[in-house]
Amino acid sequence: MNLSIAEENYIKSIYKLEEGQEPVSTNALAYELDTKPASVTDMAKKLKEKKLIAYEKYQGINLTTDGKKAALQIIRRHRLWECFLVEKLSFSWEEVHELAEELEHVRSEKLTNRLSEFLGNPLIDPHGDPIPDAQGKLGKPRVQSSLHKSKANRLEVMAVSDKSTALLEFLNTKGVRLGTQLEVIERYEFDNSIEIKIKNQPAFTISEQVAKNIMVKPI
Amino acid sequence: MNLSIAEENYIKSIYKLEEGQEPVSTNALAYELDTKPASVTDMAKKLKEKKLIAYEKYQGINLTTDGKKAALQIIRRHRLWECFLVEKLSFSWEEVHELAEELEHVRSEKLTNRLSEFLGNPLIDPHGDPIPDAQGKLGKPRVQSSLHKSKANRLEVMAVSDKSTALLEFLNTKGVRLGTQLEVIERYEFDNSIEIKIKNQPAFTISEQVAKNIMVKPI
DNA sequence: TAAAATATTTAGATTTACCTAAATTTTATT
DNA sequence: AATAAAATTTAGGTAAATCTAAATATTTTA
């Protein structure tokens, strides 16, 4: 199955928005792809034709087995390129997402597998997300809980789920990266903001929005 | 100036076909790009609008200064990716051209320069072609002569000008690669074929077509 | 449950990069 | 130089992926 770049981007976004078997709505997908609902409807018809999604008028979208397979290939390429950019070309984690969005569309299994090998077959990308293997198997779905839900007070950063440059840059300047160990100083109930501290650094406060996007595990 | 992939491919091909100040013909460009002359005319109007080429009806095409600058950037990216694929991912020289055709369209100066650095700022690509530097300066235009013109009989392979998979595969199986030292056994006048030998290998004959595409220097 | 609000789809355009067929210009040949 | 051949351009069309505006479904709410 030969997919265009636009088709690949739709498949990837549907995969991202699909939680369990809940169908993805036209509006949600349009918002995610920064396009108009009418365009989504058009593309849905095409992807249904190609048997990559299940779609009935007004009923939302789900990936088929083939669609999921395709999505995992794209995600594999994306995350491997992110690893390459960070580990080999010394990019920082907030810079790699946009570049990987472009590199991921070079569809060559041989290239992908050689790249993986070159990187030592990494299991997670620089944001903490697992990398599907050549067969499209995802190690373990991320089971970390987000900082805003965690009960414990000594935590390690395992992943960041929002890859927007702005958030990652903010975390960078605060010294928060993968593997960073945090201490929760205070949780403020009125706005769910959290005061945290990294060893040898001044404490600082993050909003609920930010806390939701930081995945942690207790230490 | 933001160029589409199609525009970049036109610019690259015009650069390739331009020898001195001879304008590139519509037909030649159509053939090179595997498209129709009418399509070339369409694109020529657009590229003229963008001031990347000089073009007058029926008069052929030349790159402007800006056009040349753009071409050299694309060629830089192409050749750096070829180096990466061969040196880091162990691809053989006949496999890399197609992949580099895709990778070259990721337009990020930062990525390009980091990649160059990672590779040790190489000066030539796996086919022997020089790599433009970050400012778009080409080390030295290739001054090697092709095997079918050379007078000397002991020669070293400096480059291969036709990057078609078929030719490169043929040379590969014969043991001909960059830096290989050849001895000319015989030149046959009737068809301009040449019998050559590599040390410790049986001699073999190549056609004029092939000889034209092997760039050599005497040793 | 009927009206209002929201979500989705359809209809009809637009842009990019192609195409074919016909018209025009340039070049080559008698 | 006139005509034939070749090259190039124009005119009009197509497919992909968008868009806006209008029509239709679904969901919410009063």
Number of strands of chain A: 8
Please tell me how large the radius of gyration of chain A is: 19 Å
What's the helix-strand series of chain A?
HHHEEHHHEEHEEEHE
Strand content of chain A: 15-25%
Unreliable spans of chain A: none
Question: Mind summarizing the main beta sheet of chain A?
Answer: 6 strands, antiparallel
Q: Structural class of the secondary structure composition of chain A?
A: alpha+beta
Assign an overall shape of chain A: globular
Overview of this structure, please?
The structure is a homodimer of 219-residue chains. The first copy, chain A, has eight helices and eight strands; from the N terminus they run αααββαααββαβββαβ. The mean pLDDT of chain A is 92. In chain A, a hairpin with a 4-residue loop joins strand 5 and strand 6. A six-stranded antiparallel beta sheet of chain A has the order 3-8-4-5-6-7. The first copy, chain A, has a two-stranded antiparallel sheet with strand order 1-2. The N and C termini of chain A lie far apart (45 Å). The radius of gyration of chain A is 19 Å and the shape is globular. The first copy, chain A, has 219 residues and is an alpha+beta fold. The longest helix of chain A is centred in the middle third of the chain and has 24 residues. The structure holds a DNA duplex (30 and 30 nucleotides).
